[in-house]
Amino acid sequence: MSDQARVLESPCRDVTAQEIAHYHEHGWVKLSKFIKPDVIALLLQIAKRRMGEDGDSNDSYGLDQPYFNAEAAEGLGNQEVRALIEGIGRNATALLARKGIRARYFSDFFAPKLPCSKQTRNAGNGATAFHQDYITFAVDRTGGMTFWIPLEPYGAQAGTMSFITGSHKMGVMGSYHTYGDGDARDAFPELLDLPMTDPIEYELGDITVHTHLTIHGAGQNQTDKPRWAYLVLAQPEDACWNGAPPEAFDTTGMTPNQRLDDERFPIIG
User: Fold this and answer.
1) Is 229 helix (H, G, I), strand (E, B) or coil?
2) Which InterPro entries does this one have (predicted)?
3) CATH no. for residue 141?
4) In whole angstroms, how large is the CA radius of gyration of the chain?
5) Is residue 97 part of a domain?
């Protein structure tokens, strides 16, 4: 079997029963040695080709926030990356754990957090305020999740995420746009009663997965290079657009309460 065929056959492993249980109890899970190193290397190569070595040479994606500088990855159009996305979809279905409901692709993008010590062309060199993803996606039901894939080994100095454990059980907690100068912990001080993880330490191939209800945040990138990350977002296959203006996708030609269509949002689980 060729090296390429081997990568396409199994770019990532399967989640374990213990990892699924951790995800449901805590709202996030770290998956150690989840993705093959050669797949990570391919993703980093694509990211740098699209965004430059500095992670800052792409055009602005139009959302001026300090969390990261984003670039659509369009991985479904790349045979090798699509194999990873489909492997992620299989695991997203397992993590979702709904009877008869599979995972649907929602988006994939590169998200380098730029060094805080440098003046950057694009936004994305600040801290990530503690927030919840759910409200920005304009879907009508929960169950969505983000596979957060670092493309190099990183720790706290690079601005890796911390999760507020169990926060996914507190329901929808608003948009980060409504928090003013604070974050979710200021708007909902009861979050301070929940445990928060230290910034996650990632070795090559490690990833984290968090629900779109889980409160999370990160410090600044204090290194002198980008903190490269690749994100794949999944939704339940029965998710519908709720009619609100979304930040994450174009609703042209769609009607409120319409299920996400198979062409743009294929089932990957």
Assistant:
1) strand
2) Phytyl_CoA_dOase-like (IPR008775)
3) 2.60.120.620
4) 18
5) yes
Return the pLDDT at 10.
86
211 beta partners: 145
- d(CA 111, CA 139) in angstroms, rounded, equals 22
Coil, strand or helix at 210: strand
Buried b (16+ CB within 10 A) or exposed e, 198-221: ebbebeebbbbbbbbbbbbbbbbb
Cβ-contact 92, 103 below 8 angstroms: yes
Confidence of residue 64 (pLDDT cuts 50, 70, 90): confident
Residue 267 lies inside a defined structural domain of this protein: no
How many domains does the structure of the chain reveal?
1
Mean pLDDT for 15-35 is 98
For residue 64, count other CB atoms closer than 10 A to its CB. 9
Q: Is the pLDDT at 4 greater than 60, yes or no?
A: no
**SS3 state of residue 129:** strand
Q: Residue 8's pLDDT is what?
A: 59
**pTM score, two decimals?**
0.96
256: in domain:
no
| Residue ranges making up the domain that contains 209 | 3-236
Does the residue 85 lie in any domain?
A: yes
pLDDT of residue 1: 42
- What does the block give as tokens for 1? 């079997």
Report residue 62's pLDDT band, with 50, 70 and 90 as the boundaries. Answer: confident
User: What 3-state DSSP class applies to 126?
Assistant: coil
